């Protein structure tokens, strides 16, 4: 527990730094919309006579972010769409493999409390993946590779919603606290269906429930507290850092095991079209894996801001 809280606090440091340094901008009524799309690609090829070693391969990663925020008087409504997908293929591998897969929608409505930076709020968050995930198995005798589906679109899918308090300095710096958050974990029944007898159910539980969902069920219900924070700032000319932090504690089971989802996106704009992107993501969710999941991508490619 202490380790999780320490790492959560470490991830929160960028938000504290921005809170101290960023100058607030006067809010304006109406819609504010912006988006960013990037495509990163790399490839290497070697012919049969090449003696220096190496394996032909290619990799591609695409990302889309779109924000649509509305304000009228004391009312605010912030919406964000995030989609990412990446693949890689090596000549000696039988199958193309995913390197990235994410789809997320966020929406939060707030009403300002007097003339402060605090708002009464209600938020909703939905996230899943776009395509199948696999476990790859190589036959020790033949060397042939097979794959088994482990995840798919809407399996798992996470939905969170609840009332709370929003602290908002600007569209680029905000924190929402919800002490009563309903969370649903939705999965496909192909991963949870077992014979309806105690021995099979015990074996399923011993192996570890699929994303915490009980045998022969498709939804896990949780009630807890959540904190969602967002901070975006410019490090220097044409270099932007975006921090997204999500924390969740389930009151109904092991509330000390705080789920952590932190993402850092660094964007370097070379010119109107060429960009360099670095993404780091760390997830702790003991319903999925007993440890931190780490993802990192780095690449140069084509980007377009709209």
Protein topology:
Elements: H1 2-21, E1 30-44, E2 57-72, E3 75-90, E4 97-112, E5 118-128, E6 133-138, E7 145-151, E8 157-170, E9 173-186, H2 198-207, E10 219-236, E11 239-250, E12 259-269, E13 274-284, E14 292-305
Antiparallel strand pairs: 1-2, 1-14, 2-3, 3-4, 4-5, 5-8, 6-7, 8-9, 9-10, 10-11, 11-12, 12-13, 13-14
Euclidean distance between termini CA atoms: 42 Å
How does the major sheet shape up? Answer: 12 strands, antiparallel, barrel
Q: Give the helix level as a range of percent.
A: under 10%
Judging from the principal axes of the Cα atoms, what is the shape? flat
Q: Round the Cα radius of gyration to an integer and report it.
A: 22 Å
Number of helices: 2
* Percent of residues in β-strands: over 45%
Give the overall pLDDT as a whole number.
87
Structural classification: mainly beta
- Poorly predicted ranges: 1-8
Order of helices and strands: HEEEEEEEEEHEEEEE
Per CATH, the architecture is Beta Barrel
What is the CATH T-level topology? Outer membrane phospholipase (ompla), Chain C
Widest beta sheet: strand line-up:
1-2-3-4-5-8-9-10-11-12-13-14
In total, the number of strands is 14
Number of domains: 1
Oligomer: single chain
């Amino acid at each position: 527990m202490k380790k999780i809280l320490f790492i959560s606090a470490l991830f929160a440091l960028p938000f504290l730094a921005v809170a101290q340094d960023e100058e607030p901008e006067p809010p304006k009524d109406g819609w504010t919309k912006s988006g960013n799309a990037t495509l990163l690609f790399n490839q290497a090829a070697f012919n049969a006579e090449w003696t220096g070693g190496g394996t032909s391969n290619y990799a591609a990663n695409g990302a889309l972010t779109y924000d649509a925020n509305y304000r009228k008087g004391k009312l605010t409504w912030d919406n964000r769409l995030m989609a990412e997908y990446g693949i890689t293929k090596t000549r000696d591998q039988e199958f193309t493999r995913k390197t990235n897969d994410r789809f997320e929608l966020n929406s939060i409505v707030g009403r300002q409390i007097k003339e402060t930076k605090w708002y009464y709020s209600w938020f909703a968050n939905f996230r899943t993946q776009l395509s199948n995930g696999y476990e790859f198995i190589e036959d020790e005798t033949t060397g042939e590779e097979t794959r088994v589906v482990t995840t798919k679109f809407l399996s798992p899918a996470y939905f969170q919603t609840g009332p709370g308090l929003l602290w908002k300095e600007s569209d680029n710096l905000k924190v929402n606290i919800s002490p009563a958050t309903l969370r649903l974990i939705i999965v496909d029944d192909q991963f949870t269906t077992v014979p309806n007898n105690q021995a099979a159910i015990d074996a399923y539980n011993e192996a570890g429930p699929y994303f915490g969902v009980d045998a022969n069920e498709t939804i896990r219900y949780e009630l807890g507290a959540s904190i969602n924070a967002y901070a975006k700032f410019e490090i220097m000319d044409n270099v932007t850092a975006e921090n997204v932090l999500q924390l969740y504690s389930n009151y109904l089971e092991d509330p000390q095991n705080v789920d952590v989802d932190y993402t850092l996106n660094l964007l370097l704009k070379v010119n109107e079209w060429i960009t360099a992107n670095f993404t780091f993501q760390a997830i702790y969710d003991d319903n999925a894996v007993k440890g931190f999941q780490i993802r990192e991508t780095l690449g140069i490619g084509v980007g377009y801001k709209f």
